[in-house]
Structures are given as C-alpha cells and as structure tokens.
Amino acid sequence: MAFREVIRALLPRRNPSGGQGPALRTQGLLPHCLACAIGLASIVLFWGPLHQLVSLSLADERYSHIILIPVISAFVLYRERRPTFSAIAFRPGVGLPFLVAALAMYGVLALGGAHVPANYRLSAIMLAIVLVWAAGFAVCYGVRSFKSALFPLLFLLLLVPVPFDVMDKIVSFLQRGSAEVTYFFFQLAGVPMFRDGVRFELPGVGIEVAKECSSIHSGWALFITGLLVAHLFLKSIWTKACLSILTVPIAMFTNAVRIVTIWFLGTKVDVGFLYGNLHHRGGILFSLISLSILMGVLCLLRKMERHGPLAATAGEDQVSLPASPGGPAAGLL
C-alpha cells in the first residue's frame, strides 16, 4: 500500500474537472524527478566532452560565450515556466525514440564509429549531446511542453562550438568588415591615409585591424543579446530574424567607432590612449553604443509589428495552445 501511495504521489494529478491544473504543484513530481535524473546521468556520461568544452571556453576568447549559454537558457525556461510546465503530458513513449537515436548518435561519434575530422569532432559530439537533452525534455514533459520551451532548447545549440577553420573565416569577415567601416569614417573625416587591406598608414601612427580587434568577442555578446531580446519582445519570426542579423553590422560599426576614436585620441590628445586601458579594456564602454543602436532597432521593429505591414504576420506567427478542459490556456508556442 505504501508503495502505491508513493507512485500515486509521483504521477501527474488532474483537476476534478478532468484537466491538468495550471500550477506546477499539481503536475506531480515524476516528470521533474526523471528530468533531474537524466540531467545528472548526462553530466556523468558526457563528462569528457563537457570538460573539454568548458576548457575551450575559458582558454579561447572566441568561445568565451559558451559557458554562459546554459545559464541564459535556464533563465528563459524559468521565466516562461508557467506556460511550459502547465502543459505537461507525461508520455515517455513519444520522445523515447528520439532520445535513443540521439544517444546512438553520441555513441557512434564517441566510439569513433563515424569518420569525423578532428576539427569537427567536438562540434559533432556537442550537437549529439544537445539533441539528447532536447529529447530527454520531450520524454519528461511531453510534446506540448517541448513546443512551449522551444526557444531555450534551441538556444542550447550555441553550446556547439564553431569549428576552428569556420571560426577563422568568421573572424576574418568581421576583421574586413570593421576595416571597411573604419576606412569610411577616415574618409568622412578627411584624414589622408594609405590603405593596404586591414592596415592603415595614417598621419602620426599607422594602425592595423588585427584579428584580436575584429570584434568577435563583442560580436558574440551582441548576437546573443539580440536573440534574447528578440524572443522576449518581438512576435513575428521575420522581425526576430531581422534583429538578430542586424547585430553583425552593428558590431562592425561599433568596432570601427572604437578604432577611429582611439586613433584620434592617441594622435590629438595623448599617445597613451593607443596602448592604455581604453584600448585594452574599453570594450564595455563601446558596447553601450551597440546596445543603444540595438534597442533603437528593437523599438522600430516593435512599432512595425503594431502598426506596419508586419502586424498581421506577427499575429499569425503567434499560435495559442488550446485550453485544457477545466483549465486556462496552456500558453503560446
């Protein structure tokens, strides 16, 4: 009898009217206990690649954003916990095939059953791990909760490290883009110069837009911020995509402003600006410019959603989940 009472307490309970209650406490503990068990087991099973990923994030600033991704994803999931966990439908059989497939994918990669170049190995393994976590969430909470939590689950894909050769191309793209905008600003200011690629011979001192100054670090931060605020404040998929894409030129623009500002201060005020704290630790100050531009674009897109041609599209992209019998609407997809 005692065993039956424990199982009954763990299983999801329903309202007297037949529907699941909206509050988290009415859902039973079994899905949450199972989710915790899968999470802890995955940390033990995937300890090797996870440790390698954390080491990469701490050692290489191009990947420093990775360590924050689970925290941000957990924050969004917690913030949207009511629409997500009020839609729990504990049916392990629905997500179990996907979980088994994701585990099989990891096993093949980890054991060397598939030939993957060394440069892409960690990326492929982390993709399999993220798929395992997503499938595990579907197993524990059901398809409706999975759809409601789609953004924080997809956000975990940023844990997949960009392969080194692809990252080098991204850095090179940002480097060239920043150099182009810098060249435009110098031309606008009427500064005589000679340009050779990303190098500028200028009066007083020459400068180079080095890879370290390509804005890759601030670019990642701005891109992640753009994804987050787009999800929180925009409705249409098109406006969300627009805001996220615009973070790239905004990062280039701000980096060019930083380069030109430091050059002018170093040549007109004090040469120490070329080597001082503003050069090496002034990223936060110039990031405020990026955030200001991003917030301006966000406000513009919100106005377009309310009053412009995107208003109808925003309404179509937001689909309501049907209300459970006797309970409120489960939330938005």
Question: Could you characterize what this model shows?
Answer:
This protein has 333 residues and is mainly alpha-helical. 67% of the residues lie in helices and 2% in strands. It has helices spanning 2-10, 30-45, 47-59, 69-79, 81-85, 92-110, 118-148, 150-155, 164-189, 216-233, 237-268, 277-281, 283-307, 310-317, and strands spanning 194-196, 199-201, 207-208. The chain has a 3-stranded antiparallel beta sheet, with no helix packed on it. It is globular, with a radius of gyration of 25 Å. The relative contact order is 0.11. The model is unreliable at 9-26 and 318-333 (pLDDT under 50).
Describe, in short, the structure shown.
Helix content is 67%, strand content 2%. It is mainly α and 333 residues long.
Return Rg in Å: 25 Å
User: Main sheet, how many strands, which sense, barrel?
Assistant: 3 strands, antiparallel
Shape: globular
Task: Tell me the fraction of residues in β-strands, as a range.
Answer: under 5%
Total tally of structural domains: 2
Order of helices and strands: HHHHHHHHHEEEHHHHH
Helix share bin: 55-70%
Q: Which strand order spans the largest sheet, edge to edge or round the barrel?
A: 1-2-3
Overall number of strands: 3
Q: What is the CA-CA span between the terminal residues?
A: 41 Å
Q: What is the averaged pLDDT score?
A: 80
The parts where pLDDT drops under 50 for at least 5 residues are 9-26, 318-333
Structural class: mainly alpha
Count of helical regions: 14
